[in-house]
């Protein structure tokens, strides 16, 4: 296998990472071994990043970090081009999922500072998306929306429908949290054909999840459950652990709203277990919050207090990072610099 064939193999693996994660892992392994045989360092580093991306889909964040660190170590002594930016962006994504927000912001901001030779435009755009998600997690919804709209502008400039769909979904989530439901729903309708054209099951599931959350916020519980069940099915089909946990969380809230307390307890406990397995502090906090509400309705005072305490502890830990981090504090000021 020559270098061109290795690059083609990695391009194939990237295309299927979100829909056929196990196959992507196998292709990345094959590309890495072939790169080693040729002493093709850029190919080896790129294979590690693709491998890490597939591991992330399975909720195996720490293993993904090991691969990404190895890719950057290769880059310390060898030219790896835009693989450096791809690795930093993926490291940030893992840290974000784990609730290590200051580390995530460091990596995403580094993506914006890299020279063009070390980061593709796609990953600069993804860095803006990530920074917006960090602001969202810190309940700065208007500023998050500004970052995601900036990212959408960059994606449009690149004429990249895949990136545009990512940005639109995040804009829709921001709008939903700002109670701008009509705008949110309209934005999701704009994103859906782009996602389907690209056959991206991960983002299609996310769209159904957000639609379900909008219905839930409006008190349309049956419609919410239908959308959330579709999201859950898709996430399980292509093994997106984070997506599965999120779907279960919102299904639990839907069941609770309908008075199906046993179903809600089962769904929320499963969501919490998956969140804990991934180390996702944000999802863990939201699951504890929902369980506290559920047990309060069931008049189980001790369980309600226990979960409310867990929620407040996790929430405070996450929010403290916003005040402790000078990077997070100045994100709004740096919005238009890149």
Write structural notes for this entry.
With 338 residues, the protein is mostly helical. The protein has two domains: 1-119, Serine Threonine Protein Phosphatase 5, Tetratricopeptide repeat; 200-331, Serine Threonine Protein Phosphatase 5, Tetratricopeptide repeat. 82% of the residues lie in helices and 0% in strands. Helix 1 (3-16) packs parallel to helix 3 (41-57), helix 3 packs parallel to helix 5 and helix 9 (161-177) packs antiparallel against helix 10 (181-197). The longest helix has 24 residues, at 301-324. The chain is globular and about 65 Å long. The two termini are 39 Å apart. Residues 332-338 have low confidence and may be disordered.
Structural key phrases:
2 domains; disordered C terminus; Bac_ResReg_Asp_Phosphatase; 17 helices; Serine Threonine Protein Phosphatase 5, Tetratricopeptide repeat; 338 residues; mainly alpha; TPR-like_helical_dom_sf; single chain; TPR_rpt; Tetratricopeptide repeat protein
**Helix count?**
17
CATH topology term of the largest domain: Serine Threonine Protein Phosphatase 5, Tetratricopeptide repeat
Query: Unreliable runs, pLDDT <50, ≥5 residues?
Result: 332-338
- CATH level 1 name of the largest domain: Mainly Alpha
Using the CA coordinates, give the radius of gyration.
20 Å
Topology order in helix (H) and strand (E) letters? HHHHHHHHHHHHHHHHH
Question: For the report, how would you describe the main beta sheet?
Answer: none
CATH architecture of the largest domain: Alpha Horseshoe
Protein name: Tetratricopeptide repeat protein
Organism: Amantichitinum ursilacus
Family: Belongs to the Rap family.
Subcellular location: Cytoplasm
């Amino acid at each position: 296998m020559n270098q061109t064939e290795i690059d083609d193999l990695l391009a194939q693996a990237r295309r299927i990472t979100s829909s056929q994660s196990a196959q992507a892992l196998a292709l990345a392994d094959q590309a890495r071994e072939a790169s080693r045989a040729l002493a093709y360092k850029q190919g080896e580093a790129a294979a590690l990043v693709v491998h890490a991306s597939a591991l992330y889909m399975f909720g195996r964040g720490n293993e993904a970090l090991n691969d990404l660190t190895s890719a950057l170590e290769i880059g310390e002594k060898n030219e790896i081009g835009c693989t450096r930016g791809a690795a930093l962006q993926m490291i940030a994504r893992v840290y974000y999922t784990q609730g290590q927000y200051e580390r995530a912001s460091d990596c995403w901001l580094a993506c914006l500072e890299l020279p063009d030779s070390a980061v593709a435009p796609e990953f600069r755009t993804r860095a803006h998306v990530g920074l917006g998600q960090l602001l969202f997690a810190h309940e700065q919804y208007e500023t998050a929306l500004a970052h995601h709209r900036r990212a959408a502008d960059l994606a449009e400039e690149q004429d990249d429908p895949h990136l545009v769909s990512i940005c639109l979904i995040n804009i829709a989530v921001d709008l939903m949290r700002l109670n701008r439901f009509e705008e949110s729903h309209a934005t999701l309708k704009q994103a859906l054909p782009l996602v389907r054209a690209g056959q991206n099951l991960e983002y299609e599931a996310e769209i159904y999840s957000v639609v379900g959350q909008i219905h839930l916020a409006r008190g349309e519980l049956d419609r919410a459950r239908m959308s959330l069940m579709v999201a859950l099915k898709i996430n399980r089909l292509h093994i997106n652990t984070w997506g599965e946990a999120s779907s279960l969380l919102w299904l639990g809230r839907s069941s609770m709203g309908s008075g199906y307390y046993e179903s809600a307890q089962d769904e929320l406990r499963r969501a919490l277990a998956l969140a804990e397995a991934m180390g996702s502090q944000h999802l863990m906090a939201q699951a504890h919050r929902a369980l506290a509400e559920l047990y309060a309705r069931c008049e189980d005072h001790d369980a309600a207090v226990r979960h409310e305490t867990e929620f407040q502890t996790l929430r405070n830990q996450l929010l403290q990072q916003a005040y402790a981090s000078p990077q997070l504090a100045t994100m709004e000021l740096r919005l238009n610099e890149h």
